[in-house]
Write a structure and sequence with these properties.
Largest sheet: 6 strands, parallel
Strand order of the largest sheet: 1-12-11-10-13-14
Distance between the termini: 74 Å
Radius of gyration: 25 Å
Strand content: 15-25%
Number of strands: 15
Number of helices: 16
Helix content: 40-55%
Length: 437
């Protein structure tokens, strides 16, 4: 764990080597895409044998199996089924509120000139759900439900097969709960390629959303344009701003809370990044001590420790202005605010995937159950985009409705003049012909 001051941050950040796809990953994924393009299902099956736990003869999972998985989960009378129902209800309600922000309209620009917008859902969307060390059950809900709420014609889910040829049964159960219409036991870059291109049995989709490893991310990047994507996700990260003056009067108690949230991020992957901005060296040292205590009993301590060793960071800031400047440069995936007078900070913080306001607003609630989405921009891309939501499955297209009138004639004449200035005579004649006719 590295501790630096705010004045040292700029030099630290300038020299930081950001992780990116290496040439070997890109070359391997390009070969996979080319093979799927030319061989279809045969290539997907071959790569499944090479990279996945099994290579099922039939990729599509009958919906009845997903329904049975959900009934099995409920029959176990465990808390998971109820938790998933609560989370799915929150995600669905939040997604429907998002949908309300996208509306059709027409606007009379001038006499005879009516502009407009139509909001149209894509016809088919795919949600990719990783199945590696941790089956991301929650990612099913986070991807499928916004697509369903957007009105997508057919929502497809893809997740790698286990040893029995099916995705994890909890992923299947969540897919049924969320409303996925088709499910495929395919994973990795070959799944992305198959969904983007289409094969004999795997349908071509209009957009692919969801996280994955570096091969999945590379496939999405390379196929973007042939298929829509949400964004290219990198290693997950969190930034916590703490000033030692929250409702937790005890500095040790706040440090322990910060450490808990750092470890929740660090346990994802050795490349995950947990960073903190603090107002004093005393708080920084208390956080370091709290991390050491918590790591002793954390089942995922090896991964979390590797993450903290390689990229964990505590920055001691001297003023709110300095902390805000640094936070906006880092542009974290998750930004937690644990301080007094928190409302005064919010308007000045511009770059983050999701904002967690106050010490009760744990980032893990956003991960699972509060209703906001956990598929968020990483690696600083929060500077220019937000997280997954209903908007990713919608197209906002424009319309133009013209009739004779003064406004129409002014626009027609302006178009003719601009076209001639650009040297595009055909454009100018097209505009002029409207007057002649």
């Amino acid at each position: 764990m590295k501790i630096i001051t705010g004045s040292e941050f700029d030099n630290y950040w300038k020299n930081l080597v950001l992780r990116s796809d290496d040439e070997k990953v890109t070359a391997a994924v390009q070969n996979i895409i080319a093979a799927v393009r030319s061989e279809g299902d045969a290539a997907v099956r071959r790569f499944a044998s090479q990279f996945d736990k099994s290579s099922p003869e039939t990729f599509e999972v009958p919906r009845s199996i997903a329904a049975d998985a959900w009934e099995k989960l409920k029959a176990e009378k465990c808390e998971l089924a109820a938790a998933l129902e609560l989370a799915s209800d929150h995600i669905r309600r939040f997604s429907m509120e998002q949908k309300k922000q996208f509306i059709d309209f027409e606007y009379a620009m001038a006499d005879g000139l009516v502009t407009g917008q139509r909001v149209i859902p894509v016809e088919r969307a795919a949600i990719y759900v990783p199945g590696g060390r941790f089956p991301l059950i929650s990612t099913v809900l986070m991807g499928v439900i916004p697509a369903v709420c957007a009105g997508v014609g057919e929502v497809v889910l893809a997740s790698p097969p286990g040893v029995e040829g099916l995705p994890d049964f909890r992923i299947l159960a969540a897919a049924h709960l969320a409303g996925a219409e088709r499910i495929f036991a395919i994973g990795g870059a070959q799944a992305v390629a198959a969904l983007a291109i289409g094969t004999e049995t795997i349908p071509r989709v209009d957009i692919i959303a969801g996280p994955g490893n570096k091969y999945v991310a590379a496939a999405k990047r390379l196929l973007f344009g042939e298929v829509g994507i949400d964004f290219v996700a990198g290693p997950t990260d969190v930034l916590i701003i703490a000033d030692g003056a929250t409702s937790s009067a005890d500095l040790v108690a706040q440090a322990d809370l910060v450490a808990a949230d750092m470890l929740a991020q660090a346990e994802h992957d050795p490349d995950a990044r947990a960073r903190v901005l603090v107002s004093s060296r005393e708080l920084a040292e208390q956080i370091t001590a709290a991390l050491e205590r918590r790591l002793q009993s954390l089942p995922t301590a090896a991964t979390a420790q590797a993450s903290l060793d390689s990229g964990g960071l505590i920055i001691i800031y001297t003023s709110p202005e300095e902390a805000i400047r640094i936070a906006n440069i880092i542009a974290p995936e998750h930004l937690e605010l644990q301080m007094e007078n928190v409302e005064s900070w919010i308007p000045l913080l511009k770059n983050y995937g999701s904002l967690f306001i106050g010490e009760k607003s744990a980032e893990v609630l956003g991960d699972y159950s509060a209703g906001i989405n956990h598929t968020l921009p990483t690696s600083g891309s929060a500077r220019f985009t937000g997280g997954l939501g209903v908007r990713h499955f919608l197209k906002t297209v424009t319309t133009l409705r013209c009739s004779p009138g003064e406004g129409w004639e002014q626009a027609r004449r302006a178009a003719e003049i601009i076209a001639r200035a650009e040297g595009l005579a055909g454009h100018a004649e097209s505009a002029a012909s409207r007057l002649k006719n």
